[in-house]
Amino acid sequence: MIWKLIKKDLLLRLKNPTGFITLTLLPILFALLLGMIFGPKSDDAPAIQISLLTEDHDDTFVSEFILGAFGRGEMAKMFQVTAVDSGTGRQMMDEGKASALLIIPKGFGDALLDEEQTHLELVKNPSESFAPKIAEETITILAEMSDRFVRLSSKQIRQIRKSIDSDTEMSDAQMAIMAINTYHLIKRVEDILFPPAIAIETADVEEEKDPMSASVLYIYLLAGISIFSLLFMMEALARDFFVEQDNQTAYRLLSGPIRPFTYVISKLSFIYIVGLVSYLLVWIIAIILFGIRLPLYLVPPFLLLILVLLTSLTGIIGMIYSLAANRSQASAIAPACIIFFGLFGGAMIQAEQLPQFMRPISFTSPVYWGQDAVKKLFVENLGIASIWINLAVLGGIGLLLNGLSFLFFERKLRA
Amino acid sequence: MLKITNLTKSYGQLLAVDHIAFEVNEGEIFGLLGPNGAGKTTTINMICSLVKPDAGNIELDGLDMHQAGDTVRKHLGVVPQEVALYEDLNAIENLRFWGSLYQMKKQELKSRIEQLLEVTGLTERAKDRVKTYSGGMKRRLNMAVGLIHQPKLLLLDEPTVGIDPQARHNMLDTVKDIAKEGTTILYTTHYMDEAEMLCNRLAIMDHGRILAIGSQDEIKQIVGENRLLRVMGSFDKLIAESLPNKLKELALISIAENEVVYSLPVEYGTGEFLETLIKSGFEIDNLSINEPSLDSVFIKLTGRELRD
């Protein structure tokens, strides 16, 4: 019988889906908004990625040295390099598909080895400001590094070229001497070239759980605001008590096979179920979209917390509506109560930041106990043992208020 | 079928229903006739256990409401004074929901819905939302909902209040049709003509008490073949009280400051009566003559008209 009444309530709501969906989405909208404003962002993603096109007309080890530099280490994260055919690069630049186009002209390598004047061509995308500038600076540094290296090792390079040009093989003795000279050369310049003059030292330190890091802040805010908005949503659903009373359908139900207890439990169950679905969606969104993490072993305690929390919130709403004499009285009392519970429960200001004399009031609010338990699970990753008190208090509030609202409703409906 | 004994309910100092007793027989339309505040709705609410009586018993087919309330309620169909429907649902959805509460089987419910839509003339609009219906259509659907589970006893609580004459006429026809199909009806109203048109037997209620009970003929016997003459104006109260001495056939029914009611057999003309009034110093503002009817019974029993 209870299920038939719940189905009817759902059918009625779905007859006017816009209002119902908007109402149900209220906590979810808050979750999305908070996530977009305060949600954590991935630390691995580069701040900026530069799309660089390359046309290599030279095709020597010098040009390969320059282009290869873009594919190593931090440069690989910063640059997305695409090799293009002659002419294609210009066309893509005209279409604004890249930040810059690097053209290495034919004979660039030879000119560099002959210590003759040569150049690299860089076409920049005028619609972008920072990325082409970074590409330009990087290529200038690479060009200078290539120039310095070629000058320093010119003797060895010439010897290799001579051997290639004359098509004669070097003897083992010549190879050994050149290898030793090259080794000494590298030893002399390694302080300058390998590693670079400015070394970037990286160190992994243990992440300290800053109470106000982005994800923690998001969880803090979400835990409070979602419960707070859930109360408003559930309150709007509870107005059905008076709607059914005013349009006499409650009278008709109760004069038929429905007992007051069945009627009240169906109404509160409907509020509970819709609230539950909405609240679950809030956390699913937070987990999927904003990277909030909960270890698998904490999922069952979290689900238990949600069930108990929703019981207490339903109790509050039931209590308000069972005591209100009419619809306008309920509409006046309910928001005041919700704001009270939200404010002192820490939905708007953290309960710890409330003045000392107000702190004890927080303990009367399910928002406080719910929010506190969420923090313990999501932020501190503490187990179920840490939230037993929260569960007990929320369960106690739920049992007490739901029990009382059944009594008051029964009395009211019989009157 | 329905047996009410010694039923009493008070709200604080107000005795809303005062030790009433009546029986409704199977297949009849039994009327509870009385003005607003007579206790009709309180009686209905006690029958369907919405209101707990202070004293008395309600039995349906020998089942006591106190002991077998749930079973008794399943055999009752209630049509409240106001339209009690889900206006965002259509007629079929409303009937299906209300029927489902009585554990009706799917096929049985489907055919019953079709039958009721036919009886109430709503087949054409069955899939439209109720909020688009006229007042009369809503009333008919309201009644159909009360009948969905084929109750043994249908409680109709002033079903024609606030509807236009044509819709009212249709409604009364529908009630007659339902009664013809064998449903027992307890019908409350404050319209004499409805009671006269519909009810096999009736009880006249006022101030929580039943003043008269029986068939229409039996009740009309209370006034006999007498007209009721209601005189409004200024007069000497002692003279008014002594008037039956001057005109032997005249009987005093009630007297108030500016109003006096007499009864006079129909075979006597009213001319002599008027002459006597004028000679006795009556300054008449208004005079109404009621032929023998339920209305005149009510006046005889209460000293006032039902609409007062």
Layout of strands and helices, then pairs:
The complex is a heterodimer of chains A (415) and B (308).
Chain A: H1 2-15, H2 17-38, E1 50-56, H3 61-69, H4 73-78, E2 79-83, H5 88-94, E3 100-104, H6 108-113, E4 121-124, H7 130-152, H8 154-166, H9 172-193, H10 214-238, H11 240-246, H12 249-255, H13 260-290, H14 299-323, H15 327-345, H16 359-362, H17 366-378, H18 388-414
Parallel strand pairs in A: 1-2, 1-3
Antiparallel strand pairs in A: 3-4
Chain B: E1 2-11, E2 14-24, E3 29-33, H1 40-47, E4 55-60, E5 63-64, H2 69-74, E6 76-79, H3 91-100, H4 106-119, H5 135-147, E7 153-157, H6 165-180, E8 184-189, H7 192-198, E9 201-206, E10 209-215, H8 216-220, E11 226-234, H9 237-246, E12 251-255, E13 259-265, H10 271-279, E14 283-290, H11 294-302
Parallel strand pairs in B: 3-8, 3-9, 6-7, 7-8
Antiparallel strand pairs in B: 1-2, 1-4, 4-5, 9-10, 11-13, 11-14, 12-13
Helix pairs in contact in B: 3-4, 3-5, 5-6
Tags for this model:
heterodimer, A: 415 residues, mainly alpha, abc type-2 transporter like fold, 2 domains, 4 strands, 5% strand, B: 308 residues, alpha/beta, Rossmann fold, Alpha-Beta Plaits, 6-stranded mixed beta sheet, 4-stranded antiparallel beta sheet, 11 helices
Our measurement of the CA-to-CA distance between the termini of chain B, rounded to an integer number of angstroms, reads: 33 Å
What percent of residues of chain A adopt helix (DSSP H or I)? 55-70%
Q: How many beta-strand elements of chain B?
A: 14
Structural class of chain A: mainly alpha
Number of continuous helical runs of chain B: 11
Major sheet: arrangement of strands of chain B: 6-7-8-3-9-10
The major β-sheet of chain A equals:
4 strands, mixed
Strand order of the largest sheet of chain A: 2-1-3-4
* Rg value of chain B: 23 Å
Architecture per CATH nomenclature, i.e. the level-2 architecture of the largest domain in chain B = 3-Layer(aba) Sandwich
Tell me the overall shape of chain B. elongated
Shape of chain A: elongated
Radius of gyration of chain A: 35 Å
Helix content of chain B: 25-40%
What's the CATH superfamily of the largest domain in chain B, by name?
P-loop containing nucleotide triphosphate hydrolases
Strand content of chain B: 25-35%
User: What class, by secondary structure content of chain B?
Assistant: alpha/beta
Q: Detail the poorly predicted runs of chain B.
A: none
CATH class identity of the largest domain in chain B: Alpha Beta
What's the number of domains of chain B?
Answer: 2
